[in-house]
Amino acid sequence: MKLFLVRTGQTAWDAEGRVRGRVDVPLSDVGRAESRAAADALTDAAVAVVYAAPDEAARATAHVLAKALRVKTRSLDALADARFGLWEGMLWAEVEQRHPRAYRRLMDAPLTVTPPEGEPLRDAYRRVRAAIGQLAGRHDGETVAVVCSADVCRFVRACVEGVAAEPPRPLDADAPTWCALETRPNSRDL
Predict the structure, then answer these.
(1) Residues forming a β-bridge with 75
(2) CATH numbers and ranges of domains, the chain
(3) What is the reported pTM?
């Protein structure tokens, strides 16, 4: 399966450097422009379907993309961001200041961290990995687009490329909005 991995367009919280997690925050004007730019870049791609995380920003980004590609959008709960619990809404700098040991561990070994009252990041990673494996099995030989947060995009890339998961962090305004990946044969075993 060929996979176009599309980062959800920017939200106001992303611009402020806040931990979004499962909080539903709509796209900002910048996010809407990023969504249109990703759609323009992928207009000629032969995508069979666009899968989106269930949050509002991902669904809005996916809608713009699917309209340009003239395909359907499907919501996939497994692509939801991790639950960051009490960190949701905090600035990343506040997390670092108030929880320095947990933050250091998050940067060094992200899958070993469970935010206070949140979801273990290892569980979130496994959920995303299972979803990509299922999509690879369902869409063998096809091209699909997946729209999710920057943090979930990092999990997807780690799964597909077989590398260590990068830590969650504030959205880099210069980060690309999409990339192309190719799953391996037998990717159901991701």
Answers:
(1) 52
(2) 2-189 (3.40.50.1240)
(3) 0.94
